[in-house]
Amino acid sequence: MSLELREVSLRLAGREVLSGISAAPFARGEFTVLAGPNGVGKSTLLRAIAQFLPYRGEVLFDGEPLSGMSPARRADLAGFMPQNLQSRSDLSVLEGLLVAMNAAGGTREGQGAQIRRAEALLAQFGIAALAGRGLARLSGGQRQTVGLAQALARDPTLLLLDEPTAALDLAMQYRILAELAAIARRDRVVIAVLHDLTQAARWADRLVVLHRGRVAADGPPEQILTPELLAEVYRVRARVERDGAGQLFVAVDGPA
Ligand SMILES: Nc1ncnc2c1ncn2[C@@H]1O[C@H](COP(=O)(O)OP(=O)(O)OP(=O)(O)O)[C@@H](O)[C@H]1O
């Protein structure tokens, strides 16, 4: 069961962005990457799942519509990290995490336990030293890592992340993607938008590719990543090959 999308459609400014997105259930334990060309609707779909945009169709978790859940229950269930994480807040990184923990009614933990958990989350992502830094004084990559910690603040069952590695260096990309795969293994549903299909092939159990408002391909990356799909969806000539270690990679040779 877990997360189900049934005929999710959405218009923005009079234009249909999503045209009836349905997908097999996203199971607990599964790390899914959502990919597709710029402007195809990946962020829009994540925002609809997170209930930040009105849509037609159904978004269900274990059979229950997310649209009918109270804000507190939804905050417990789903953690969402948006693409644009600018912050003009006066809060410190630690305070920002505590705010995320206490959103929509908060958890039942005492403040001491919350602070310990917040510090552990920062340590998990290698940014413990930033706890006292102002949110407005972070680099792009630091802000992104803090945003991820905020999305995880309530230990959500469903984690929705919009380009979580876009601002990260190579070491942090590896660390975060390995962490997301490990979080999924702990019985969570993790869905992340990524543009890097080689990274998707390396880490994701499932790849969903959007094209023209619909699902163009959905399955294990090694099954669905083909030169034909990349030509159709991205209009590129590309090779899908294995490196010396047996890892799949995508190399683009030019426009199709
Ligand atoms: N607030 C808005 N009002 C009107 N149209 C919008 C709005 N936000 C996004 N769009 C349009 O909706 C479409 C989907 O945008 P979305 O941000 O979901 O794409 P995306 O797949 O996440 O793109 P990218 O890879 O560039 O981040 C685009 O054509 C975009 O121009």
Automatic annotation (TrEMBL):
Instruction: Please report the stretch or stretches of sequence annotated as the ABC transporter domain.
Output: 3-237
* Family matches, as InterPro entries: AAA+_ATPase (IPR003593), ABC_transporter-like_ATP-bd (IPR003439), P-loop_NTPase (IPR027417)
Q: Which Gene3D superfamilies does the protein's record reference?
A: P-loop containing nucleotide triphosphate hydrolases
List GO molecular-function terms, semicolon-separated.
ATP binding; ATP hydrolysis activity
The record, for CDD domains, names: ABC_Iron-Siderophores_B12_Hemin
Q: State the UniProt keywords alphabetically.
A: ATP-binding, Nucleotide-binding
Name the record gives this protein? Iron complex transport system ATP-binding protein
Q: PANTHER family from the entry?
A: ABC TRANSPORTER ATP-BINDING PROTEIN (PTHR42794:SF2), HEMIN IMPORT ATP-BINDING PROTEIN HMUV (PTHR42794)
* Pfam families (alphabetical): ABC_tran
SMART domains in UniProt: AAA
Q: Which PROSITE patterns match?
A: ABC_TRANSPORTER_2
Whether ATP-binding counts among this entry's keywords is: yes
Give the species this sequence originates from: Poseidonocella sedimentorum
